[in-house]
Design goal:
Keywords: Membrane, Transmembrane, Transmembrane helix. One of its GO terms (molecular function) is transmembrane transporter activity. InterPro entries: MFS, MFS_DHA3_Transporter, MFS_dom, MFS_trans_sf. It comes from Candidatus Shapirobacteria bacterium CG03_land_8_20_14_0_80_35_14. The protein is built from 14 helices and no strands. The protein is mainly α. The protein folds into 2 domains: 149 residues, Up-down Bundle (Growth Hormone, Chain: A); 198 residues, MFS general substrate transporter like domains (Growth Hormone, Chain: A, Up-down Bundle). Helix 9 runs parallel beside helix 13 and helix 11 runs antiparallel to helix 14.
């Protein structure tokens, strides 16, 4: 072993903060340099990261590898959704975005489930193998990305001036008059989901009484269920209903948090699976809504800005939340989240109702 738990913590923090800090700058780069080129570079850096981890002999090499991985993650974030949406927009098929995205997400989650199961066995056989295979697949993805077609929409010539302007304008675009009515609600909900995904759900699993082996199996099942619901979300929704569906989904999600304090192994597993299904559908609907109100020339920058803002609260507060949850338990903290979500949904529903009433009166 080349490191201990402390070293693992340093590696994880380095990866996470690198990806967060570079979210907006890499989004702006994608809008100016091109989404296709950005995705090619992101997969290539991911390959270097995994190869580096596989052959690292000390902590310094590990940190350098995950920095490359963090840059790759931030380059991919925002750029891929923007490429898909703009490609459809160019062909006047943007109404199909939710359906296309749901299928892509479901396929990704299926691969997560399969690779999680296989990766565990490969690691026991040879701990280099999982990272080597990840690196090979990332390299193949980088090559295949050359065959993507860059949408010819609002392209800008690269310069330092344009790049600086892209960062600021793309960030401000997130709070334009069309998005302001819903963006704060989406940020709050997504921030809690980021916390659940990164920290809370694993803690809840242990408090529900699940062993490490059971958690491994459960997370594979969770990925498959998420894939199923992501696929179904593209079939049962209509663009005009998406925000109302998100409100309903958030209410259901609040229920999964609310029941956590009384949950054991069986109920707890059901709650975790249900919340993951809700989150996978929520993410698809959220991306569809955001893309609908974002101009093509700011798309990747604005989506990256949203990803930054929704993740930043967790990044800043994670150490303190960990200490707090240790004192009051993760189950009780989940109950607190449920209360906050119910209040937020109620307020947002009243605001939406008021806006609709005003539009009806003026119309």
């Amino acid at each position: 072993s080349i490191t201990n738990y402390s070293g693992i913590g340093i590696v994880e923090s380095t990866l996470f903060f690198t990806a967060i800090i570079l979210e907006v700058p890499t989004g702006a780069l994608a809008d100016i340099l091109g989404k296709r080129k950005t995705i090619i570079i992101s997969f290539f850096l991911s390959a270097l990261c995994n190869f580096g981890i596989a052959y690292s002999t000390n902590l310094n090499n590990l940190v350098i590898s995950v920095v490359l991985g963090g840059i790759g993650m931030s380059l991919y974030s925002g750029a891929f959704d923007a490429l898909v949406y703009d490609s459809l927009l160019q062909d006047k098929k943007e109404s199909m975005f939710n359906k296309v995205l749901s299928r892509i997400t479901s396929q990704q989650l299926i691969m997560v489930a399969v690779c999680s199961a296989i990766g565990g066995y490969l690691y026991v056989y040879d701990h280099h193998l999982p990272f080597m295979l990840c690196g090979i697949f990332a390299l193949v993805a980088s090559v295949l990305s050359f065959f993507f077609t860059e949408p010819k929409l609002d392209t800008e010539k690269f310069s330092l001036k344009n790049y600086t302007k892209q960062n600021t304008e793309g960030f401000k675009h997130l709070f334009n008059k069309d998005l302001t009515k819903i963006v704060f609600f989406l940020i709050i909900i997504s921030s809690f989901y980021a916390l659940s995904d990164e920290m809370l759900d694993s803690m809840l699993g242990y408090e529900f009484g699940l062993s490490s082996q059971m958690l491994g199996i459960l997370f594979s099942v969770i990925a498959l269920v998420g894939a199923l619901f992501s696929y179904l979300s593209g079939k049962i929704s209509k663009d005009k209903d998406l925000f109302y569906l998100i409100l309903i989904l958030t209410g259901l999600s609040a229920l999964t948090y609310l029941l956590s304090p009384i949950a054991g192994v069986i109920l707890g597993s059901i709650l975790l699976i249900s919340r993951t299904a809700i989150m996978s559908v929520h993410n698809n609907y959220q991306s569809t809504i955001l893309n609908k109100y974002i101009e093509s020339k700011y798309r990747a920058t604005t989506l990256s800005s949203f990803n930054l803002i929704k993740t930043l609260p967790y990044a800043i507060s994670a150490p303190f939340l960990g200490i707090y949850m240790q004192q009051i338990t993760a189950k009780n903290f989940a109950f607190f989240i449920a209360i906050v979500l119910m209040v937020v949904v109620t307020v947002q529903s009243l605001v939406k109702k008021k806006v609709l009433a005003q539009q009806k009166f003026l119309g």
